[in-house]
Amino acid sequence: MATRDELLACLAQFRDRCNADAQLRPMLADWERTILIRASDLPAEHLLIVRGGQVYLEPAAADGADLTVIAESGLLADLFAGRITPTEPYLNGSLRVLGTEEDIMRLDFISLMIWGE
């Protein structure tokens, strides 16, 4: 289990890596999405907002997310810090990603580009 602050730090690290990656910027330029990150074991929800080629991190304040990522806080922290890939947790059901198949694939590709395998 990660604390709320640890999870927030990992999300901020993900945001910063996305925004600093020059190869990723063209892929983000045409993709405007709101991604709700929900920890199943903490009262913690955050938004990653992709807009204008940049990623922003905000507290979750409203409905209307295009994608929702749900998992235990420690798993979310590990995913967004790049310590693990989403494949196994997604396949075993400990990670749920709700959204269109295209958006889910794009989010997975973004993670792969900034963290590698």
Description:
- The chain has 117 residues and is an alpha+beta fold.
- The chain has one domain (4-112): Nonspecific Lipid-transfer Protein, Chain A, CATH 3.30.1050.
- It has helices at residues 4-20, 25-29, 73-80, 87-92, 101-115, and strands at 33-39, 44-51, 54-59, 67-71, 96-98.
- A five-stranded mixed beta sheet has the order 3-2-1-4-5.
- Helix 1 runs parallel beside helix 3.
- The model has no long low-confidence stretch (mean pLDDT 91).
Sum this structure up briefly:
The protein has 117 residues and is α+β, with helices and mostly antiparallel strands.
List the keywords.
Nonspecific Lipid-transfer Protein, Chain A; 117 residues; 5-stranded mixed beta sheet; alpha+beta; 5 helices; globular; 5 strands; single chain
Largest beta sheet: strand ordering: 3-2-1-4-5
The end-to-end distance, rounded to whole angstroms, is 23 Å
The biggest beta sheet reads: 5 strands, mixed
Helix content, binned percent? 40-55%
Which class of secondary structure composition applies to the elements? alpha+beta
Q: Identify the CATH architecture.
A: 2-Layer Sandwich
Number of folding domains?
1
Per the CATH scheme, the topology name is: Nonspecific Lipid-transfer Protein, Chain A
Mean pLDDT across the residues is: 91
* Helix count from the secondary structure assignment: 5
Please describe the topology of this protein.
Elements: H1 4-20, H2 25-29, E1 33-39, E2 44-51, E3 54-59, E4 67-71, H3 73-80, H4 87-92, E5 96-98, H5 101-115
Parallel strand pairs: 1-4
Antiparallel strand pairs: 1-2, 2-3, 4-5
